[in-house]
Structures are given as structure tokens and as C-alpha cells.
Amino acid sequence: xxxxxxxxxxxxxxxxxxxxxxxxxxxxxxxxxxxxxxxxxxxxxxxxxxxxxxxxxxxxxxxxxxxxxxxxxxxxxxxxxxxxxxxxxxxxxxxxxxxxxxxxxxxxxxxxxxxxxxxxxxxxxxxxxxxxxxxxxxxxxxxxxxxxxxxxxxxxxxxxxxxxxxxxxxxxxxxxxxxxxxxxxxxxxxxxxxxxxxxxxxxxxxxxxxxxxxxxxxxxxxxxxxxxxxxxxxxxxxxxxxxxxxxxxxxxxxxxxxxxxxxxxxxxxx
Length: 270
Known about the structure:
This protein is α/β, with parallel strands linked by helices and 270 residues long.
């Protein structure tokens, strides 16, 4: 009887020990933990940044980011097998945000320049445009860049348009804005004599009749707009270029461009 009782006791202790061991394995992250879903791990997010103030390229409507840039980013992410996550950042610090790894790329109508190439790499162009002078409809004084001397010119902060303005007027006459649209709206009020901005922004505003403005002369520059990527992210850069080629070939690019501008704004790929 005593032997039987001892045997039962030992058996109970061993069972308890095994249970404790099993619990310990589960708590410390051993084999008992469920495995991660490999499909969920593959679906990486593509965070791409823009100012959110550059209609019709990127802007907020009913609290949601929308526009040409947003939709191009969505199409590229789909081709790369990634989840698109558009984000906003003030334009004047957008490159710093990229270098600080706040997002994967800048997809916000950024012009390729030699100065920017010192800090980041660029994808192939995803649209081409130019810098244009816009004035109030009633303005008869400004007809070309040569007419800008001494005039008050509106530009977006930290943009290539500011550099252009400074070539034609003094610093005191250059007024910086957070948004091109705000600057263009100030033309009919006589707060500004001219605005230098992307020709497509101004032309769309003229078409919609939101401000009585007009373009003057020929475009001051012809610019290539591209996605900015950190220099070390060469693999991502290659994926973006491949995805861009694919959306151009399969007609996705045409559909998005037609929706926002009524035509293809890329032109011929070089």
C-alpha cells in the first residue's frame, strides 16, 4: 500500500514538472509559439511623402490625401507587391525627413536638380513640366521674365521657383507661400504681381475658373519630376523604376494622367 502511494506521488510530481516545463517554453518564446503568417510578412508597406498642399498633384479632400501623385504611388506599390501609405511632410524639410527614414521615398512632384542629387537618388521621371509665370488677367505690364524686375513674386517655400524668382527680382520682393494655390489666388487681389509655379498647376486653375489669372510668355524651364530615394536604397530604386515601366506599358499611367489632366503628362521616356 505504501509502495503504491509513493508511486502515485512520484507520478503526480512528474506530471506537474512536465506541465511547468511546457508553460515555461510557451512563455519564453520557444517552439510552442505560433508561427508568423509568411504572407503577412511579405506585404510590406510603401511609405511615400508629399506636402499635401499641391493640388491637383497631392492635396486633402474630406480629410483624405488624393491627387495625381497619390494615385501614381498606389499604382507603383501594387506593382511592387506592397501596401501604399501616402504621408505628408512640410516641403521645406521633406528631404531631411527622407534621410531620417521617416518614409521610403518622396513622391510629391519633386524636380530633379544637381543640388538635390548630392543628397538623394532619383527614379526615372514620372512626369515632365516647366516653370511658368502667371499674372492677374488684367495685368498688362508683365509679358516675360524680363518684366519681373522690381515686381512682387509669389513662390512656394524651398522650391526651384524661388531660385528662379531671385534671378529676376530682389529678395525683398519674393513672397514665400506654403501652397501654390494660395499664391495664385492672391494675384487678382493685387497682393502679388506674379507667381512662378508649375505650368500645370496654373493651367488647371485657369481651366477650373477659380481665379482670374493668365500665363505669360514661354515656360522658363523644362523640368523632370521624379521620386527621391535614399542613396543606399538601390534595390528599392530598381523596383520603383521597374514598376513605373510596367504602369506605363499596361495603360495604368495613361488612365491616371487622363483623369487629372486630360492628357498624358509624361511625354517621351528617355
